[in-house]
UniProtKB/TrEMBL annotation:
Source organism of the structure: Agitococcus lubricus
PANTHER family cross-referenced by the UniProt entry: QUINOLINATE SYNTHASE, CHLOROPLASTIC, QUINOLINATE SYNTHETASE A
Protein's name according to its UniProt entry: Quinolinate synthase
Single biological process term from Gene Ontology: 'de novo' NAD+ biosynthetic process from L-aspartate
Cofactor field: [4Fe-4S] cluster
Amino acid sequence: MNNLIDNAAKALVKQHLDHLHQPTEVAITPERKAELIAKIKRLLIEKDAVLVAHYYTSDDLQALAEETGGCVSDSLEMARFGNKQTAKTLVVAGVKFMGETAKILNPEKRILMPTLEATCSLDLGCPVDEFSAFCDAHPEYTVVVYANTSAAVKARADWVVTSSIAVDVAEHLAAQGKKIIWAPDKHLGNYVQKVTGADMLLWDGACIVHEEFKARGVLDLKQVYPDAGVLVHPESPESVVAIADAVGSTSQLIKASQTLPNPRFIVATDRGIFYKMKHASPHKEFIEAPTAGNGATCRSCAHCPWMAMNELENLAHVLETGSQEVFVEPSLIPKALIPLQRMLDFANSKR
């Protein structure tokens, strides 16, 4: 297993964070919230639109998606759901690559997002030119990229995966004797390599939220809550994964929180997931895993700063105006569709 150290990509992520206007979750009055929710519900009907929200968005957006017949899910289920909808417009509450994926799978639909500025450190840290050059230098490898990548990077890949299906795909390829280029998340790649034994060459990317979870902090918290289970997303560092009671994607962690007997859980992923966990297990307690604190490069304290840019106000605005529409270069769509469809077909075969 090798890592590609791409300092230019890391610098790009840092530069973007330095210029990011960190949104603050400004409280709105109950009256204003009710007004916005009613307006959004009306506009979804008028515009023949359906709302798809990721687990890491706010409680309000997740509740709204559920109440209006939309979807709250991980990246894989978001892709499946959007692909099956008859509505003319999909509104994707999440980050930019999710909107691009929806457009690739549904080029005939209008795809809107509350903001097109919401990106991802994994996407930023895998520029297509550098990544393509790396792939070209290793032509004997099968290229597997995480869903958290641009349409251009997906178009260069043989497979796209989400965290919920990453291990299965790697096992499938390893059984065929194939070597794998894995991008961009090095922690997820390391986890997959250890579980499957696959021959993998890792790109050196990381999620700014998950990378800040610390094993020492989790162990200290376990001293306070000895009966707590530890739930960890595999984008977290290896030392954190090693002390987990369950490791998995967002949907897999929600399921684990229901099936494990612990009365409370320390959760090493974005705290947006607590909305679904609390609804699934209202009698259990959920605690944020500690991060590196104020000195960390992470601006989020267990919450993605880009996911936080999705708000009721900008959702209402885009539905009303049709702004913030997602476009993908037409020449990329058929190329990116191949590995995405390969993932969906493989996932369906495993159900």
